[in-house]
Amino acid sequence: MEEGKLRELKQFIETCKSNPSLLHNPSLSFFKAYLLSLGARIPPQPKTEPGVFDDKKPDPSLPAEDDIIESDIELDNAYVVEPDNDPPQKMGDPSVEVTEEQRDAAQLAKSKAVDAMSQGEFDEALDQLTEAILLNPHSAILYATRASVLMKLKKPNAAIRDADTALKINPDSAKGYKIRGMSRAMLGLWEEAASDLHVASRLDYDEEIDMALKKVEPNAHKIEEHRRKYERLRKQKEHKKAAIKTEAPIKKEQETEAQVQEALSALKDGQVIGIHSTGELEKKLSAASKTSRLAILYFTATWCGPCRFISPIYTSLAEKYPKVVFLKVDIDEARDVAAGWNISSVPTFFFVKNGKEVDNVVGADKSTLERKIAQHSGPL
């Protein structure tokens, strides 16, 4: 890791040590979940007086100029338990091939576990389910069932590990989402819990999921509203800072607008502009570029029969496409321009956008000429 990032990480950890309540900040929920998954103990969230927040009015209790310090959220943590830090349960080897006999033996162990659960003997149920998982590690329902036993034993981290494994095997395991959601609620991970329980409800609704959601959703909604509140306040602060720095951009915008108007005055909407020198051509192409217009450079000659045919058509196209810049060069009169564009035959048409050639037409092909004008002048 880069030295600068290490310094920032150390500073962040020192800040958390001096003020552990920061770990209850909703924006750090991912970090809190990671610490809990490692078995860390998070100090309880200090209670604050609940207040009424009007989403349409600025919060006078927060400083306008200084950094915004988020207040705590009043949550119902009655069902939150201390995170478990036991060694992980034995997991089966997903790479092994399971025989029919092993499946039958696993099913028998599961039946014994269900009987033990019905009698409240959860430790016995846990042992039987572990044996079943080792026999058949490909069964999502076995992991989800063991997760439910671990949850009843108030071991939410262990339950989440088994639920995760069940969902890896079967992403549509309603029981996997249900147990993981209820276990996350036991750790105070309200938004993650609500998300899991909603998925479980869509897959296979039952009353237990509905009861869990009634406990989880109020806290999840408070966290969401809290986040939206401070996102809005940060945007207000950013807009305020941006307003202070608008003078330079406005001046630049005015200068750009003046340049565009000057460029437009050099162009003639609906008319063909004669070019007599390289300098004159550069000015017209520059003006076309500043106004984001397509420029067409038509090379012709008085002695050219096809040119005499296409010239009036070129003039009529200029009237039809007034926002396109139509330029015309007589190669005998402006030899420097013709040489710069390596003209070997006439009529030749070059299509120029933002100072770069994007297409060309050689010859008096009326239909191709108009088609390409329509093609390249479209997104102006």
From TrEMBL:
Positions of TPR repeats: 106-139
Family recorded in the similarity comment: Belongs to the thioredoxin family.
One Gene Ontology cellular component: histone deacetylase complex
SMART domains to which the protein is assigned, alphabetical: TPR (SM00028)
GO biological process: response to stress
Pfam family membership, one: Thioredoxin
Top-level taxon in the UniProt lineage: Eukaryota
Name of the protein in question: TPR repeat-containing thioredoxin TDX
Organism (species): Flemingia macrophylla
Stretches the record annotates as Disordered: 45-65
Occurrences of domain Thioredoxin (ranges): 242-378
MF terms (GO), sorted A to Z: oxidoreductase activity, acting on a sulfur group of donors
Chain segments annotated as coiled-coil in the UniProt record: 220-247
Keyword entries, A-Z: Coiled coil, Disulfide bond, Electron transport, Redox-active center, Repeat, TPR repeat, Transport
